[in-house]
TrEMBL record:
Classification via Gene3D superfamilies: Fumarylacetoacetase-like, C-terminal domain
Highest taxon above the source species: Bacteria
Similarity section: Belongs to the FAH family.
GO biological process: carboxylic acid metabolic process
Pfam families cross-referenced by the UniProt entry: FAA_hydrolase
GO MF, any single term: ureidoglycolate lyase activity
SUPFAM superfamilies xrefs: FAH
Residue stretches making up the Fumarylacetoacetase-like C-terminal domain: 75-281
Name the UniProt record assigns to this protein: Ureidoglycolate lyase
Record InterPro entries: FAH (IPR051121), Fumarylacetoacetase-like_C (IPR011234), Fumarylacetoacetase_C_sf (IPR036663)
Enzyme Commission designation: 4.3.2.3
């Protein structure tokens, strides 16, 4: 199933996507709720809605404004250095253990919402990434069982302020500016994709300019390994988000000059079989002006 959490004049709801149309699942059964947590917490709910979907009214996909798939994720864990060529372009050694860091809730926003370049830096970079949504609680999960803990896959743009990322070895400042991590709009269940979402084309672009182009099969640590590794040290909870690293082609590594995102551009991240996460880039002062006007 392909899901979209989004807003209409009737409020925020979960939709089942079929081509350019969508069925409001929340209207079919209020137990679905206003984000994916209802379906995640009630594994049989989606099956019970299957027959209703076929005969239900649909709305144009374009009439739904995307919202976050999970409104308030408990934990957002991100991987760095998971594609060999990206590691080389950044001048790093290939790590023996996955490079992990965390994002806070204020740093993420839904696809379609503006990506904000902060007033203190012009070095806003893009990172196309596959993201998974955890489907059930688990600790010490084996690689063999890891895929059973995936509810679905979505698209992530890990917007990074490179100068602030390098102010500390922990990367935290550069990865946690408000409204720099775009998620969505679609979430696709594992049965609709190859095992572990491997073998999918992943690309970022601005207009006709291709910024990154690779394949999720090129990840050093796949979904199974990442889940097993993270669950060694922490309990994964339903609705947690895990981002799986970016391929080569990021802006800071472009030669002869870095390629930073600029206000007025729209950056797109596309993953085959899942969809496009598009984000208009704006300056922080313009974002503040919009808030003040509201």
């Amino acid at each position: 199933m392909k899901y979209l959490v989004g807003e209409t004049s009737e409020g925020t709801a979960v939709f089942a996507v079929n081509g350019e149309n969508a069925v409001n699942l929340t209207a079919l059964d209020p137990a679905v709720g206003s984000d994916l947590m209802g379906l995640i917490s009630k594994p049989g709910l989606a099956d019970s809605l299957a027959e209703k979907i076929t005969s239900a009214d649909s709305v144009p996909l374009s009439s739904v404004t995307p919202a976050l798939p999970v409104a308030s994720p408990g934990t957002i864990i991100c991987m760095g250095l998971n594609y060999t060529d990206h590691i080389k372009e950044g001048g790093y050694d290939i790590p023996e253990y996955p490079t992990l860091f965390m994002r806070g809730k204020n740093s993420i926003m839904a696809a379609g919402q503006p990506m904000v370049r902060p007033a203190c830096s012009e070095k806003l970079d893009y990172e196309a990434e596959l993201m998974l949504i955890v489907g059930k609680r688990g600790r010490h999960i084996s690689e063999q069982d890891a895929l059973d803990y995936v509810f679905g896959y979505t698209v992530f743009n890990d917007g990074s302020l490179r100068d602030y990322q390098r102010k500390t070895v922990q990367w935290t400042p550069g990865k946690n500016f408000d409204d720099t991590g775009a998620i969505g709009p679609f979430t696709v269940t594992p049965d609709e994709l190859p095992e572990g979402a491997s073998g999918l084309k992943i690309e970022s672009r601005v207009g006709d300019e291709i910024l990154q182009s690779s394949n999720t099969a090129n990840m050093i640590w796949g979904v199974q390994q990442v889940i097993a590794t993270i669950s060694e040290y922490t309990t994964l909870e339903p609705g947690d988000l895990i981002a799986l690293g970016t391929p080569p082609g990021v802006g800071h590594a472009k030669k002869p000059n870095p390629r930073w995102l600029k206000p007025g551009e729209t950056v797109e991240v596309e993953i085959e079989g899942i969809g496009i996460c598009a984000s208009p880039v704006i300056d922080e002062k313009d974002a503040k002006s919009k808030v003040a006007a509201a």
